[in-house]
């Protein structure tokens, strides 16, 4: 298993992507700490993980509350055998606003998802990174991107673009301490079936499913990707070429 003995935090652990990533981390041997604003759906994810033989813990947490996030990271780092935090994945929502052109949006509406996304990424990443620095390594993962050229993505697209800047800055500052940073670019993962057809312009016939995103996160978090940082994992099926 790729993550045996690792400790992972998944913020936004009850969302579709967060839950899939949490299950994949646990499947590969990591002890997973799930956070979110509402406990019951987190407990359901944890129940599935435990049912499959994995380790999962749940905590109610507002990822915009820096002090609360810091306290949670401190508790996770001290838990178990006290080996710290190996992986932190931020899958919290960004109050996305899509469907209208920028010409029709108020500035406040455009900036709201940007502020939320940058805030949660900074709070969660820096809280975990402080403990990763102490132990000489770790991996920070984020859902980001922003290279699509699709109209109507509004403030959400700008938020994703902003997050790539945050990730690059973190990678530059944390690399000397052995901490890696990567982000996943995915155009979304609808339910299987006809609706899972790739967007027009993609090179492959299907969008990635949640499990595809989760498996990419496992790879990025593992030692198999130990030389990768300040980098994007492109899961667009060729919609956004490199």
UniProtKB/TrEMBL annotation:
Keywords tagged on the record: Oxidoreductase
Residue ranges that the Swiss-Prot or TrEMBL entry lists as coiled coil: none
Oxidoreductase found in the keyword field: yes
SUPFAM superfamilies per the UniProt record, alphabetical: NAD(P)-binding Rossmann-fold domains
Listed Pfam families: adh_short_C2 (PF13561)
Transmembrane feature ranges: none
Protein name per its UniProtKB record: SDR family oxidoreductase
Tree of life domain: Bacteria
Keyword Transferase: no
Organism: Streptomyces pyxinae
Family under the similarity heading: Belongs to the short-chain dehydrogenases/reductases (SDR) family.
């Amino acid at each position: 298993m790729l993550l045996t003995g690792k400790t992972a935090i998944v913020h936004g652990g009850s969302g579709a992507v967060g839950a899939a990533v949490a299950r994949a981390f646990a499947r590969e041997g990591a002890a997973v700490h799930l956070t979110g604003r509402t406990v019951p759906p987190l407990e359901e994810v944890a129940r599935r993980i435990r049912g499959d033989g994995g380790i999962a813990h749940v905590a109610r947490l507002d990822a915009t509350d820096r002090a609360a996030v810091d306290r949670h990271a401190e508790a996770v780092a001290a838990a178990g055998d006290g080996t710290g935090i190996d992986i932190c994945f931020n899958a919290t929502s960004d109050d996305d606003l899509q469907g209208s052109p920028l010409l029709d949006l108020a500035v406040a509406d455009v900036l709201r998802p940007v502020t939320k996304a940058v805030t949660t990424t900074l709070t969660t990443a820096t809280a975990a990174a402080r403990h990763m620095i102490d132990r000489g390594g770790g991996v920070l993962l984020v859902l980001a991107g922003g290279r699509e050229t699709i109209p109507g993505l509004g403030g959400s697209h700008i938020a994703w673009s902003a997050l790539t800047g945050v990730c690059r800055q973190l990678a530059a500052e944390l690399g000397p301490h052995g901490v890696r940073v990567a982000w996943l670019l995915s155009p979304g993962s609808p339910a299987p079936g006809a609706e899972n057809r790739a967007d027009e312009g993609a090179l492959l016939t299907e969008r990635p499913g949640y499990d595809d995103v989760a498996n990419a996160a496992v790879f990025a978090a593992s030692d198999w990707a130990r030389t990768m940082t300040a980098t994007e994992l492109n899961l667009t099926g060729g919609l956004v070429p490199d």
